[in-house]
Amino acid sequence: MIGLDSKDFRLLLIVAVLTMFAPFILNPFPEGSAMAQFNAGYPDLMQRFVIFGIFAIGFNILFGLTGYLSFGHAAFLGVGSYAAVWVFKLIGMNVLPAIFLSVVIAGLFALLIGYISLRRSGIYFSILTLAFAQMSFALAYSVLTPITGGETGLQLALDDPRILGFSQTESGNIPVPGLFGLVEMRSSAQWEIGSWVFTFNVGYYFSALVMLISFYLAIRIFRSPFGMMLRAIKSNQQRLSYTGLNPKPYTLAAFVISGMYAGLAGGLMASMDPLAGAERMFWTASGEVVLMTILGGVGTLIGPVLGAGLIKYMENIISKINEEILHSWFAFLPDGLEDFIVAIIYPFIGKGWHLTLGIVFMLVVIFLPGGLVEGGQRIARMFRRKKTDDTKSARTEPAE
C-alpha cells in the first residue's frame, strides 16, 4: 500500500495516529493538578517535537545508513531558517514558498560542504563538518550582519516590501505566517472536557503533516536500492570500491538529502516563529541531533523521532521543575526528610536537566546500544516469550 509493505505501512500508521492525537496523549493530567507540570500538549512544544523529529530523521539518513557522523548539521538548520525569514520579508507570509526555498538553499549549501568534506572519512570527516558549521556560525553572528541580523537575529519589520503580500495589517501590526492568507500558523482552538484543556494548533498540524511526509520518504529511501547501497558503504566501503562501484556519489547524495531535511526543519521553525538567529548554527545544536539519533536508535526509522521527543520533553518540562514544586510534592513527609529528598533530586532537574540527560544517554549507550527502539523490541520479545510459555503450559499431554 502506497509503495510500502505491511510492516512499514503499520509503522507509518502508528506515527500518524500518535501525531494526530498528540494533544490528547500529551495532556494526561487535569489542569491545576500537581501532575499537570508534566503535560506537554501545548502548541509550541508539540511543534518542536515534530520539527526536530524531521531534523533527526534527515540526520539518520546520513549517519544511520552510511555511518558518516556529521557534527555540522546545524548549519543547514540555520540556513533554512534564514532563507524562510527572507522569503517572509521580501515576498509574502505564505509558508509554502518559504519552506520550499529553505529546502533548496540548504540542499545547495549541503552540496558545497559535502563535496569538500566527503573527501575524507571517519573522524576527519566529522571535524571538517564541525569546522564548516562553526565558520557558518561566525559568519552569521558577526561578518554577514546585514544578511543575518547578527547577534539579534533576522526579524520581520513593518517596512519590509513583501511584493506578494502586505507590509502590515490594518491594525498596524506585522503580519504572521499562514497558508495563502486563509489561516494563520498561530491559530488555535481549545476543547475543554472537565478539568482537561486540549489545544489544537494549525501550526502544529501543518508541521505534523510535513513530518509524516518526511517520514514516508525516509521509509522509501531505507527500502530502496539506493538505501541498500548506502548500507553497503557503511558495512565495508573499501570492499565496495573493489567491485568497481564509486561510493562517493552515493554518500554525497545522502549528505545532500540529509541537509535538505535539516533545511526543511529550519524553514518550519521560522514558519512557526518568524525569527532566525545564529545560535541555531552553533555546534551544540549539531550535537543535539546526534544525541537524538543515538538515544532513539541509529539506523532505525522511528528511533530518531523518539529521541527528539525525549530530549525536547526534558528540555522544556524537566527543566522547569524548581525547588518550590519539589517541596509541594513531598510536603506530606516530615520536614527533615522532605528537605533531604529535595536536596538529592534538585541537582538533576531544573537547570541541572543536562545532568539527567547525560545519565540517560550513558545508560542507553551501555545497556541499549540500539536506543529506545531496542528497548521496545526487548519488551515486545519478553511479552511474546511469556505468551508462548503460557500457551505451552496450557497444552494437555495425552496420557500414556
Low-confidence stretches: none
CATH fold call of the largest domain: ABC transporter involved in vitamin B12 uptake, BtuC
- Mean pLDDT level: 91
When the domains are counted, the total is: 2
Largest sheet strand order: 1-6
Please tell me about this protein's structure.
It contains 16 helices and 6 strands. The protein has 400 residues and is mainly α. The protein has 2 domains: 278 residues, ABC transporter involved in vitamin B12 uptake, BtuC, CATH 1.10.3470; 78 residues, no CATH class. The model has no long low-confidence stretch (mean pLDDT 91).
Which SSEs are present, and which pair or pack?
Blueprint: H1 6-20, H2 22-25, H3 43-66, H4 74-90, H5 95-117, H6 122-143, H7 145-148, E1 154-155, E2 178-179, E3 183-184, E4 188-193, E5 196-201, H8 202-223, H9 225-242, H10 248-272, E6 275-276, H11 283-296, H12 303-316, H13 323-329, H14 335-345, H15 353-367, H16 371-394
Antiparallel strand pairs: 1-6, 2-3, 4-5
Helix pairs in contact: 1-8, 3-8, 3-10, 3-11, 3-12, 4-5, 4-10, 5-6, 5-10, 8-9, 8-10, 11-12
